[in-house]
Design brief:
By secondary structure, this protein is α+β, with helices and mostly antiparallel strands. It is built from 5 helices and 2 strands, in the order αααβαβα. α1 packs across α3 (35-51).
């Protein structure tokens, strides 16, 4: 795929995220999009987010079991980054023993683990 197409896909995904609106799978519009190109789209969007003030806070892997890779037609695990503005539960869910709400009733954050997107360490969870 051409770089311009990859940037178009990345832009479409950023716009959908910003608007909170679902879009059709990118392969509907760009049928030549394969896993390698999709990882490039992801890289473009991470670079764009960081350039506009977001920050990386972690990494994630998915489909690490061969059976799951086979189920999704993959030849390798899926990987990605966690950013401070991510809306994924693994970044915003408090660790065991902590409240899962973002703020206590009085409105003041009780710990870094109670703030969506804030990094949590094992020390914070005690």
């Amino acid at each position: 795929m051409q770089t311009t197409e990859l940037r178009d896909i990345a832009g479409a995904l950023r716009t959908a995220r910003a608007n909170g609106e679902p879009i059709a799978a990118p392969t509907t519009t760009w049928p030549d999009l394969d896993a390698d190109a999709a990882f490039e789209v992801q890289r473009i969007n991470v670079e764009e987010a960081v350039a506009h003030g977001d920050r990386l806070v972690g990494y994630k892997l998915g489909n690490i079991a061969k059976v799951m890779q086979d189920a999704f037609g993959l030849d390798q695990p899926a990987s990605g980054t966690g950013r401070s503005t991510s809306r994924t539960p693994w970044l915003t869910t408090a660790p065991p023993g902590r409240s899962s709400s973002a703020e206590p009733p009085d409105g003041s954050p009780s710990s870094p683990c109670a703030t969506p997107g804030a990094p949590c360490t094992s020390t914070d969870a005690k």
